[in-house]
Amino acid sequence: KTAEPLVRVTGLTKQYGDTLAVDGVDLTVRPGEVYGFLGPNGAGKTTTLRILTGLISPTSGTVRVLGGAPGQAQVLARTGSMIESPAFYPYLSGLDNLRLLAEYAAVPRRRIEEVLTLVDLADRAKDRFSTYSLGMKQRLGVAAALLKDPELVILDEPTNGLDPAGMRDMRQLIRELGTEGRTVVLSSHLLGEVQQICDRVGIISAGRMVAEHDVDDLRNDRELVIQARPLDR
Ligand code: ATP
């Protein structure tokens, strides 16, 4: 692929007091790719994704998302994200929670039904959010991220804490997003997971990008797999 990258990050750093959370990260995400950001807890994944979504600013480095700076209105309009557990009203239904969000974002009502179907929550849409399993809550978070029909979807540890069935459903959903042609950037601490659902993987450790690979190389190259294996717990 020679298309312009959708995300281009060079020399990214983020300093919190004495902690260098992100230490010179370069990464490129191409259109239509499912990109996995793999690393253990505290490696700097969340910090990087928060910078990509414009929630926080970098200490230094260059970040271009969809041809603009993160947090610019025209970039936000084309990006959907789920960073940490999404906040929904527990006593409202999944549907009503999405209706509220859709109103703020001027999203057509028809789109709400579409995203609920896409995340396989149409049957439970009228049930209170508080009755949902963690997996369903996370999928509603993805539904919210998809309301604006974004080209780029950023998901921070979307399977974290889920039971096996919840993980399976979420992974399948992410693969579907990729098949639909959306560009997805997600973080994970599970090698097996990124092998299953990603096209390309960046391995981050202690704020540094240790390696970046096509997932096929990660499958075939024994050395690489051994290198990445300790992350897979
Ligand atoms: P996790 O999976 O636990 O979220 P992560 O790879 O996403 O891990 P980050 O959350 O980005 O890692 O954290 C990277 C480092 O930066 C950690 O040492 C963390 O303690 C530190 N850190 C993150 N946010 C802050 C903050 N707001 N203030 C101070 N230190 C922070």
From TrEMBL:
Keywords: ATP-binding, Nucleotide-binding, Transport. Residues 7-231 form the ABC transporter domain. GO terms for molecular function: ATP binding; ATP hydrolysis activity. It comes from the Bacteria. Belongs to the ABC transporter superfamily. This is ABC-2 type transport system ATP-binding protein. It comes from Kribbella amoyensis.
